[in-house]
Amino acid sequence: MKNEYLQSVLIESSQIDECVREMGRTIASDYGDEPLTVIGCLKGSFIFMADLVRAIPRTLHIDFIEVSSYGDFTESTGNVRIVKDFKHPVKDSHVLIVEDIVDTGLTFDFLFDHIRLKQPASLEIAALLVRKSVDRKKRPIKYAGFEIGEEFVVGYGLDAAGLYRNLNHIAAYSPT
Ligand code: IMP
């Protein structure tokens, strides 16, 4: 794999594993036996989603939504649009969104507005990464893995121009 732009390992795969296991246990205990639908936000969450749902020891519905706000570059276009919507009816079911990273929070806002219209019993989010700059009073993130700074990161599902999603760890990436 071409990797000359990859820099330091920011989060080791063992740290991710431990965090995801713990998050799964907490989610299972928080929702008890209530109906739960977990909606993964593609593409960046696909590995986190796969690991997280297997760490939640209970029955649940799984669906995916794909949204796009980044072109092929490392700057958000500021414009979120649905590429593929989720299908499972969520009225009266608890819904947990799974996101790779909450960066500007635009996707967070978009997903909450979009899914709320379907009248779920409750709506929360699990994000592997959250930027320190995110105002968490305005955008409450119930399940947050790691707080990171402003560096662009790749790995464990996150990409730079479509590459590096298959790394087991999170690495800083700089194209310069
Ligand atoms: P937001 O809408 O700005 O919060 O960002 C939403 C999406 O941007 C995330 O779900 C990621 O797919 C992508 N993104 C933001 N920061 C990074 C990064 O550092 N690396 C890779 N993708 C990122």
The fraction of residues in strands falls at 35-45%
Radius of gyration: 16 Å
Note the run of SSEs as H and E: EHEHEEEHEEEE
Sheet with the most strands: spatial strand order: 4-3-2-5-6-7
Give the % helix: 10-25%
Average residue-wise pLDDT? 93
Low-confidence stretches: none
Q: Class in CATH?
A: Alpha Beta
Terminal CA distance reads 18 Å
Give the strand tally: 9
Inertia-based shape:
globular
- So how many helices? 3
What does the main sheet amount to?
Answer: 6 strands, mixed
Q: What is the CATH third-level topology name? A: Rossmann fold
Tell me the CATH architecture.
Answer: 3-Layer(aba) Sandwich
| Overall number of structural domains | 1
Protein topology:
Layout: E1 6-11, H1 13-31, E2 36-42, H2 46-54, E3 61-70, E4 76-84, E5 94-102, H3 106-116, E6 122-131, E7 143-148, E8 153-154, E9 170-173
Parallel strand pairs: 2-3, 2-5, 5-6, 6-7
Antiparallel strand pairs: 1-9, 3-4, 8-9
Helix pairs in contact: 1-2
The site of inosinic acid (IMP) has 19 residues, from strand 3, strand 5, helix 3 and strand 8.
Could you describe the 3D structure shown?
The chain starts with 5 loop residues before the first strand and ends with a strand. The protein has a single domain (13-149), classed as Rossmann fold (3-Layer(aba) Sandwich). The chain has 3 helices and 9 strands, in the order βαβαβββαββββ. Strands 4-3-2-5-6-7 form a 6-stranded mixed β-sheet, with helices on both faces. A 3-stranded antiparallel β-sheet has the order 1-9-8, covered by helices on one side. The protein is globular, with a radius of gyration of 16 Å. The chain has 176 residues and is an alpha/beta fold. Helix content is 22%, strand content 36%. It has helices at 13-31, 46-54, 106-116, and strands at residues 6-11, 36-42, 61-70, 76-84, 94-102, 122-131, 143-148, 153-154, 170-173. Helix 1 crosses helix 2. Residues 44, 69-70, 76, 99-108, 152-154, 158-159 line the site of inosinic acid. Inosinic acid binds at residues 44, 69-70, 76, 99-108, 152-154, 158-159.
